[in-house]
Amino acid sequence: MLNIAILSRGAGLYSTQSLFRAARRRGHYVRVIDHQNCHLLIEQGVPQVIYHGSGLVGMDAVIPRIGASVTGYGAAVIRQFELMNVYTATRSEALIMARDKLKCLQHLSANGLNVPRTFIAGNPDAVPALIDKLGGAPVVIKLLESTHGVGVTLAESRVTAISLAETFYKLNRPVILQEFIREANGSDIRAFVVGKEIMASMLRQAPEGEFRSNLHRGAKAMPIGLTSEEEKIVLKAAQLMGLQIAGVDILRSLKGPLVMEVNASPGLEGIETTTRVDIAGAIIENVEEGVKTYDGIRKW
């Protein structure tokens, strides 16, 4: 039996509950811990996590469910558990890199994976020329950190794209400019990786008049099989990001599969209800194996 902590701000959320039930079914002691209420004691040789006035001790494993709005502090809590030699299902540095869309795309493309053509401007004056280099409007504009489609906009005209980019820069929010993959027709594929295996994959189709295929925005989902090329790309993307648990989003384009992003804390509701695959159970099994072999130094 393992002593497992699920780091989550919402004990009643589907993903948290699914993991909780899966751990209990396998006989583990599990509790949900709000990472925002964790306080970190930094002291020579004795790192501690204080929760509701007491130190968390005897933990075998931590499963992070860190929201995008608290990435920095969530990663610090994970890092503290790492310093305490507790196995973490998602490493702190992997979470940080995956959350930063620019770093993620830089790392994936530098290691041979095909991604949508992307620019980030050092200053807003360069935006018009960069839009032209992308082939003109429409272009996709994304904040460096976004989730559930928030902070992602399709600029239908050059004027709109320039205006949006300038507005974000004035708010000190640099943006990514990305080519619009028209042939995807508002769809993408989410593949869910646990360990070194693709557990399930689904096609997400945006509703009429919407280009974002997020389920939170009304997209429809259906199970879909991957080609052998797509499988290799998905597994390589998760490996490159150092993630044991990952949601890899790809687009089918005329240039072949394009990796859109790699999610380090992917939701379980959409993939489990669509494919009927017990993803949470697979995650708990992966954690069990991870704890057995954990020596304080994690390899993918």
Properties at a glance:
alpha+beta; Rossmann fold; D-amino Acid Aminotransferase, Chain A, domain 1; Dna Ligase, domain 1; 3 domains; five-stranded antiparallel β-sheet; four-stranded parallel β-sheet; 29% strand
Describe what you observe in this structure.
This protein is an alpha+beta fold and 300 residues long. The protein folds into 3 domains: 3-90 and 285-292, Rossmann fold (3-Layer(aba) Sandwich), CATH 3.40.50.20; 97-114 and 183-278, ATP-grasp fold, B domain (D-amino Acid Aminotransferase, Chain A, domain 1, 2-Layer Sandwich), CATH 3.30.470; 118-180, Dna Ligase, domain 1 (2-Layer Sandwich), CATH 3.30.1490. The protein contains 9 helices and 16 strands. The protein has helices at residues 14-25, 71-83, 92-99, 101-110, 127-133, 158-170, 228-240, 269-275, 279-293, and strands at 3-7, 29-33, 38-41, 48-51, 54-55, 61-64, 87-88, 118-120, 139-147, 150-155, 175-179, 187-194, 197-205, 220-223, 245-253, 256-263. Strands 14-13-12-15-16 form a 5-stranded antiparallel β-sheet, with helices on both faces. Strands 2-1-6-7 form a 4-stranded parallel β-sheet, sandwiched between helices. The protein has a 4-stranded antiparallel β-sheet with strand order 8-11-9-10, with helices on one face. A hairpin with a 2-residue loop joins β12 and β13 (197-205). α1 packs across α9 (279-293) and α2 (71-83) runs antiparallel to α3. The radius of gyration is 20 Å and the shape is globular.
